[in-house]
């Protein structure tokens, strides 16, 4: 419970009276907030204690039941203070040191989702509009409800309401993140309009410590997941929610949050549909041990700025919160009191450059998705320029539910909403959340789809993107539709996205239609083979290790190609507004700055699904260096990007057993770096050493007659938005030698699915979504 900080003793008296009223209201809601005799309010939470209404800058102590000081801090400029990582227990009190005034006794709870305050579920939420939902510790979270009768707009574009959902109860979905989801005008990066078009009501809700929500922000701390549990249970009990249960829906941040919430198993959660997610923080933040100072660090900076108190002149706060404070929203204003207690994400990044299980595992979905027991639909992209292409690693860990479907494709961050995926997503939500046959709203969704793609992807109006025919939506009954849907294998891979044909026969390069698809029971694909191509002389890749020794050299300088952007798009703003996200400004490497190898023309199609690796025997003139491996397909004088991977030389040790970041054993196709500080070893002087560069996942068909290319270089210049300002060597350059011989068999290893060919033509250049194509330039190794 938050109140404004008193500026004078008279103001403090008034605040005291107001606080007592608030405490009374909190008691009705079941909060543990306690008022001290000078007016500040304190409360216990999950491993936390907070206090608000203190004089700014006041010294504050947290006392245990015996009166001993546990921690000391100073109140922030808004009169708030938050004590983190407090052991669970009873009898804690908050003391204002200057006056000696104390709060009443407080209870600190564990991070268990077991509810300690069930009365909060009696809250009433209206069917439409903006408001605040109270969590079990008394924190008020901002929300906006978008009923299907009054749908949210997308990118400022209004959408029509589906007539089949004219009155409640509505099938209902929750979008939950730290972006400006609660913005009543237009949810920031939210896709509520898409769900509305499917016939669902959407509750867009703001994470604690962001926007107009109370509390203090931290990156996916346990309390955020507990809040998610309370959100699900509160919304599900509303009389206008169909069936007394809700689903979760969202892309990126709003997708990742679903994994954390669902792992706590709220009883009235029906299903989740996370889109464009991560599998582990490190695969986006520290690929191969090299800090992603492009998207990942920029994203962290943005989250930290947006978590600062609105209405105080702080840089980068969420505009809708600034506006509500300016317009006199007292709850939003009061809720800023703890925003100044936001955790330093940049500080956490600096302190956790290596794998620490106690820190990393609670933040990494790969560590806990086995706890999820509700039906799950997930979609990710192999070349996702934001979260990265490692999401498919989650498939093997989803052991808590048998109802799970995954769609993977080449493409950008937003391609989890492509037509083929949208169809299956809609079917899933209709069947497992709405409990109705998808044919109920299929016609309305199809009618509005071109508007969605025009607004979300910037597709021109004269090139309408429409949904293909769907056999599930053609079934007349729920049972028939469910049976048809559940016939599909768990894993679906859409190949050549951007080179397919629209339902009406049009083929426009880059439009989000796949060329073909294959489905599998799981990942890794049963029967997948690790096929090797060996680095040899003459810049060639061979199917066998070379009989003679070949050593090439290049100068590694991370400053040469620090990053790549979409053409005409800078920063992270290309997510929603760039129609040609498949087109990168993909620059050529200069001779002498990389080592590149090309295979002979393939005699038949080679279709890959999964991860891979590049094993190189390296000698470096510096004690450390960062390596990037890029895989591409060369055909008819053109070169198409497929995938990249990264590895820091000093981090080269691979993990043994399953007690590692990815919770799986290293294999030829999926090497797992240890990432532990104790395993760091400098590059040996004057000696060749084996460095394995893990490749991120791919689903790509290398056509007969094409050649496979692998390029090894300093990091940067390949994945858009990602950059590596701290790449090694930090200054100057390193002379790198790569040895390939029978003794040192440097090689490319790809996940080939035997017999999996294609009868579709090779895609145009350019054409594939987020797989740029350029003129092939022959590269002669030195």
TrEMBL record:
<keyword id="KW-0732">Signal</keyword>
<dbReference type="InterPro" id="IPR000383">
    <property type="entry name" value="Xaa-Pro-like_dom"/>
</dbReference>
<dbReference type="InterPro" id="IPR005674">
    <property type="entry name" value="CocE/Ser_esterase"/>
</dbReference>
<feature type="signal peptide">
    <location>
        <begin position="1"/>
        <end position="35"/>
    </location>
</feature>
<dbReference type="Pfam" id="PF08530">
    <property type="entry name" value="PepX_C"/>
</dbReference>
<protein>
    <submittedName>
        <fullName>CocE/NonD family hydrolase</fullName>
    </submittedName>
</protein>
<keyword id="KW-0378">Hydrolase</keyword>
<dbReference type="InterPro" id="IPR008979">
    <property type="entry name" value="Galactose-bd-like_sf"/>
</dbReference>
<feature type="domain" description="Xaa-Pro dipeptidyl-peptidase C-terminal">
    <location>
        <begin position="491"/>
        <end position="749"/>
    </location>
</feature>
<dbReference type="Pfam" id="PF02129">
    <property type="entry name" value="Peptidase_S15"/>
</dbReference>
<dbReference type="InterPro" id="IPR029058">
    <property type="entry name" value="AB_hydrolase_fold"/>
</dbReference>
<dbReference type="InterPro" id="IPR013736">
    <property type="entry name" value="Xaa-Pro_dipept_C"/>
</dbReference>
<dbReference type="GO" id="GO:0008239">
    <property type="term" value="F:dipeptidyl-peptidase activity"/>
</dbReference>
